[in-house]
Amino acid sequence: xxxxxxxxxxxxxxxxxxxxxxxxxxxxxxxxxxxxxxxxxxxxxxxxxxxxxxxxxxxxxxxxxxxxxxxxxxxxxxxxxxxxxxxxxxxxxxxxxxxxxxxxxxxxxxxxxxxxxxxxxxxxxxxxxxxxxxxxxxxx
Length: 140
Known about the structure:
The protein has helices at 15-29, 37-45, 60-71, 83-89, 103-116, 128-132; strands at residues 33-35, 51-55, 77-80, 97-100. The chain is of the alpha+beta class.
């Protein structure tokens, strides 16, 4: 049986996974990440967040602390499937949210994720629908 074609913008089991995992590790080592819901909230509030990556399986109460802040700011968001995958990419147990705090890394993440999505409209995070739905629905 032939493996299914990846959905546009997905990360997991395809080459995009490796790029995103590598960027997460590099960004962490350079100090360009705020890891965890509390740290991500602080980064969004202080306007340091340039991109927020959230895990779909995070506790609704935890995600609910961050989403209202993102709805009122021009910070793009992207989703991954599992906390364990996001945390694993960072060498940590499950992580629900990560804020990218530098433009250069945020641009790299958005480029990689958008390249995986092909020419899907709205993947740049400019509008509210792009912030809500990123097209990234697999684990890191």
